[in-house]
Design goal:
2 domains, elongated, alpha+beta, 3 helices, about 260 residues, about 15% helix, FAD/NAD(P)-binding domain, binds flavin-adenine dinucleotide, 5-stranded antiparallel beta sheet, 4-stranded mixed beta sheet
Length: about 260
């Protein structure tokens, strides 16, 4: 969770155009000068918050306490997961939690069993295989490319909804050198009647992750994070006319409100 402190000077702006430029510059300034504390937040206390002023106390697992003007929650609220406590808000936001889908990523260094997939040799196999049978015990098998960009060799990723058994692994691989398993609550359980929480969950408290209920991806997370940062900034500055407005700063070729 990222917590930003915004202490903005009371500036007077001569025109709408300048307001946008200044807003962007202030956002950049605070992004550059922001400090990241890699600490687990266990409690957020609303000390005093209303439409015109706000103050929140953030408490971490190690017992540190800091005060902030704005809170941005940048992780999903997940059913059954321990989340930070919200004190003094009238509600603890548990209603925003959603069930998430469990996916286990198996990273395997080995040789796939090409005959199981119907190929004459490993080199004939495609890089990605996605089974669509009802009884398939895995969701996909992909040959991974090393992070240095070199050619893929013999490390594969297999996604499944459970930890693969020895028998299942032996079905997919004729030999294995290493197997690493990461257990994730990967994305929301999607259905046709999703209810989307707001990006603003209380006065001066924002939530980045409702976007995941529409599409769970790094790109959507980045767009949502940017928009929430602009929303918080515009509300803080009192620039209501800039909220939900597509606005292009032409000479800088910068589009805000994605
Ligand atoms: C197995 C898997 C495969 C995926 N594949 C893809 C893909 O191929 N392409 C793609 O675009 N997306 C993919 N995604 C989705 C993508 O990873 C997510 O959409 C994205 O990471 C969401 O970003 P986020 O910053 O909103 O949340 P997260 O990445 O979940 O970050 C939230 C952070 O908040 C921290 N946190 C939580 N609670 C607290 C607290 N109380 N105090 C402090 N910190 C806290 C967490 O530790 C975490 O670091 C995949 C996800 C999974 C699990």
């Amino acid at each position: 969770m990222y917590v930003f402190a915004w202490v903005l000077p009371g500036l007077a702006f001569p025109c709408a155009h300048c307001i946008v430029c200044m807003s962007y510059e202030i956002l950049c300034y605070y992004a550059i000068t922001a400090q990241l504390f890699a600490l687990q937040v266990i409690r957020i206390t609303n000390i005093s918050s209303n439409a015109t002023s706000s103050l929140f106390r953030v408490t971490t697992r190690t017992g540190e306490e800091r005060e902030y003007d704005i809170i941005i929650v940048a992780h999903p609220f997940i059913d059954g997961q321990n989340m930070e406590q919200f004190v003094g808000f009238g509600e603890d936001f548990r209603s925003l939690s959603r069930p998430y889908h469990r996916t286990l990523a198996h990273i395997i260094k080995g040789v796939p069993n090409h005959s199981h997939f119907g190929y004459a040799s490993v080199s004939d196999m495609p890089r990605n295989i996605f089974p669509i049978g009802k009884n398939d015990f895995y969701n996909g098998l992909s040959l991974l490319r090393p992070v240095d960009g070199s050619d893929p060799s013999d490390v594969y990723k297999v996604f499944a909804n459970h930890k693969l058994t020895e028998e299942e692994l032996s079905t997919l691989f004729s030999s294995r050198e290493e197997v690493h398993v990461v257990d994730w609550l990967a994305y929301p359980e999607y259905n046709t009647q999703m209810v989307y929480p707001s990006f603003k969950i209380a006065e001066k408290v924002y939530y980045v992750n409702p976007i995941e209920l529409a599409a769970s991806a790094m790109e959507t997370a980045a767009v949502s994070g940017t928009n929430v940062a602009y929303l918080a900034l515009h509300e803080w500055m009192g620039h209501d006319h800039l909220i939900d407005n597509m606005f292009v700063i032409e000479e800088k070729h910068i589009k805000i409100e994605l």
